[in-house]
Amino acid sequence: MNRSGCGRMAALGLLLCAGALGLTGCWDRTEVNDLALITGAAIDCNGNGRLELTVQIFIPRASGGGGGDMMSQKSGGGGNENTFTRTAEGENIADALSHLQSELPRMLFWGHAEVIVFGEAAAKDGIRDDVDYLMRSPHPRERSFIYVSRGKAKDVLELHSILERDTAEVLREMSKSRLALSVTLAQLSTMLTSDADAALLPMITVVPAPAKQMDQGISYIDGLAVFKDDCMIGYADKETTRGVLWLRDQVQRAILTVHPAGPRGSVSLKMINSNTRLIPRIEGDDWLMDVYIKTENDALQNTTRLNLVSDLRAVKQVEAELNDEMKSKVRLALTLAQQTLKADIFDFAGEFHRAYPAVWKKEKGRWEQHFASVEVRIHPAAKMLRPGLASIPSPVPDKEEHSK
Amino acid sequence: MSKDSSDLVSPSLEANLQALQDLYENCADVYYRRFGIGKKKAFVAYIDGMVNIDQLDEHVLAPLMRGDAAEAGDDAGGLPSVLSVAVVGTVSTLDDAIAKLSGGSVLLFVDGAPHGFALGLAKWEKRSIEEPAAESIVRGPREGFTETLSDNTSMLRRKIKSPAMKIVPFEVGKLTRTQVLLVYVEGLAAETLIREVRERISRIDIDGILESGYIEGLIEDNPLSPFPQIQVTERPDVVSAALLEGRVAILVDGTPFTLIAPSTLFSMLQSPEDYYQRFMIGTLIRWLRYTFFLITLVLPSLYVAILTFHHEMVPTSLLLSIAKSREDIPFPALVEALLMEISFEALREAGVRLPKQVGAAVSIVGALVIGQAATSAGLVSAPMVMVVAITGIASFMIPQYSTGIALRMLRFPIMFLAGMFGLLGLMLGVIAIVVHLCSLRSLGVPYLQPLAPMKGREMKDVLIRAPIWAMRTRPRLADSANRYRQPPGRRPKPPKGNGSL
After folding, report:
1. Is residue A69 domain-resident?
2. What residues form DSSP beta bridges with A256?
């Protein structure tokens, strides 16, 4: 009897607890119909110290007729668009957002904003304050991709895409393809707080549409924006980018073309694997960095007379050329970082910190001087694994073979 | 005036006849036939439609009336030797007489005899053995139990020929006097289990048992649970398999549905075909079933919860297309889900009741209404139709119908929780169900055994369906001394050498 009494009390207690749950009601219930889904955001500064936030919002109607123009802000609607953009000014992101929200009938929803673009001017002013909001607020994704655009970031979002759903999706797909550097919000905030005090973001170039064809403008990733502290101080072009990526061990896929000395033509190789190791050393006052880059490649196209199938010397020659190519690219990147910009975008600081924690503690304050003088030794080791074909496709004239 | 039914049969023919006629007053289906054996008077009584009249004429009335039994008739005890009837019992009380009569026997009373005879000439119209409609399989025996108890026991006896299979009769129901049989294999089923089942059946004191569902409701451990704790089947092979695992079966006269106890949640999720097909496919299908078990329970709730609270959890493209399809829907997701689920349940229930001739037409119209029309009218979104359809199909994947309907019912409270508290509510609901399942027992065996309490070795029949040669031990549903089904090392292999003969 006593036991069942206990059970009854427990059941009553549970019931009361369940009742307490009911008191909260459906307070944060939001239907999808009540949301304005942000697909991408752009942050610009408008010259007089105020921030300009542009958001690209998904139009849930299947073939809705663009965005409304009734607001004072310019709307990027038109045609059979999936999205429209809205802009608002404010002191910071939170402020601009509140203005934006007051102009929209639906709740702004950041959960699917997968792309955030900084305008060049905003990036040069510093992005720490903006990142603060993006990291602090629970709504934006930490996995959204961050970019810097040449010119105004707003222009990127106002482009129309023919291939993808919207321009934000275009950028996201490009980042996902791993051909270029991709940086997420979480990675950016790590970079901003790292020893190196430098950060990298992919740079977008916008080719605006010709006057009458609204949907012909495109944007593409082209180089890197280099940040020191939290301000953009320069950028790396496409060639240099490859070198930067090699030093950061972030090359995933690449196609390299080399021109072996001697025969006419070129050999293109598809890199299928690349692995970079940084080994820091301090010898007396000299700070050294050994960079080992190992890559594996498949031949894609061969317009030379080299026989890549059975001639080991030819293979060695191509590999040597590859090594030179890698070396020169990396040198390019080093020159930019060490001499021109003086920004440790490769996180050498972290490597030295890990390898020589005691020395690092003392020398931390003078890292800038040290970085410029770090002697980097590059040890590329390219391997050509497969010639791509089992036989020699193009008939090689006999006399040329003999003349060699 | 009226006799107590436990009275003894009197030697006087007239008294007996009178007693029977009193008992069966206003029973037009009871027939009496007076006749003479030599000089002795006699009568037979039987119930119309339950007796083979031809045999009664040929093997009882003819030899007795022709007079060659006259001298045998002098000594009533010698009477059976004249009758070419296999089953001849004696009837010494009126109680006996009633039982035998309503069982289809012919009662024979001879003047001066100390007791009457019950002649087993029972024969009534019955359904032939057919393939069970609710449990059809691709490979396996196609016979199913019928409403006739003797047919059912014969099917079992043909499968388990050992005399160790015991069949214990009970009579339950004061008015229906339904015959209930407890079947078990001696030495496999635990003594304690048999004693418990006997006790529980004996406890029943009700006017009538019309189906095994009555028995189930009267002997199960937790009558307030939505989950069935006793397995129901109309397949003799399923019952035999259960008997070999040391379970007991309860057969009830008048229904093909047989009870198997103790049974666990996992035995409810097993189909006999798992064992007849190759073990790999058996394992795979089992997992498919587990997956859809969960889908039945939570898919609509998950959809509602994510769509009302956790928009960031859906992949972007998916959310965008859901947003598109939901744009014109006037209802919140919860209402939409309830609308669809309830109309699906209605359609299902109607489908069962519909006469066969209109069934097809109505189900087509119904499918159109809850699918096509509702979507194009903008009342529900297409993804919701899909969710409901998948859930509906999933619930029918569970072999045990009663488990399936339990899940279908529990889906609604979880849907409410999900609509109110999102995934938190969903998890609360699921946790409550799991806790409840853990507390359930089926005749003393934990309902989630062998998962909780964990019995590692029995996972061979839960997580996977081990090959037959690897299933050496019986499940420990009730402890049994006889644990092994086969000696070790019975894995088949080619002959030694290069493998050819």
Report:
1. yes
2. A269
Boundary-marking domain end, from A192, A219, A236: A236
Q: Which domain holds residue A97?
A: 32-236
3-class secondary structure, B44? strand
Backbone angles phi, psi at B122, to 5 degrees: -60, 135
DSSP characters over A384-395:
EEE-S-SS--SP
Domain ranges of chain B: 13-119, 149-263, 278-445
Q: Are A69 and A131 part of one and the same domain?
A: yes
Does A184 lie in the same domain as A303? no
Q: Tell which of B318, B319, B320, B384 to mutate to test the A interface (max A CBs under 10 Å).
A: B320
Longest alpha-carbon distance in chain A: 108
Q: What is the pLDDT of residues A242-296, one digit of tens each?
A: 889 889 888 878 888 888 877 678 889 998 889 999 999 998 888 999 999 999 9
Beta bridge partners of B41: B36
B323 touches chain A (CB under 8 A): yes
* Range scoring the smallest mean pLDDT among A24-28, A220-224, A399-403: A399-403
Q: Where are the beta strands (DSSP E) in A208-285?
A: 218-228, 231-236, 254-258, 267-283
Tell which B residues from 404 to 463 touch A, by Cβ distance under 8 Å. 419-422, 425, 428
Does pLDDT of B39 surpass 50?
A: yes
**Chain A positions with Cβ closer than 8 Å to B:** 21-22, 24-26, 28-33, 35, 37, 39, 58, 60-62, 109, 111-112, 114, 141, 165
Beta bridge partners of B111: none
Q: What is the DSSP letter of B481?
A: S
Chain A residues with CB-CB distance to B419 below 8 A: 26, 29
Q: Name B421's Cβ contacts closer than 8 Å, sequence gap at least 6.
A: A21, A24, B428
Q: Is residue A202 part of a domain?
A: yes
Whether residue A126 sits in one domain with residue A39: yes
Q: Which of A236, A251, A270 is the last residue of a domain?
A: A236
CATH code of A316's domain: 3.30.300.210
- My answer on whether A113 and A200 are in the same domain is yes
Left, alpha or beta for A16 (phi > 0: left; psi -120 to 50: alpha)?
alpha
Instruction: Provide the domain count of chain A.
Output: 2
A200 and A300 in a single domain? The answer is no
Q: Could you tell me if A277 and A224 lie in one domain?
A: no
Contacts of residue A331, Cβ cutoff 8 Å, sequence gap at least 6: A243, A378
Rounded Cα gap, residues B477 and B444, in angstroms:
9
Contact: B319, A112; criterion CB under 8 Å: yes
Quickly count: other Cβ atoms within 10 Å of residue B122's Cβ.
17
For chain A, give percent helix, strand, coil, nearest 5: 35, 30, 35
Q: Are residues A208 and A272 in the same domain?
A: no
Q: Are A131 and A137 in contact (CB under 8 A)?
A: no
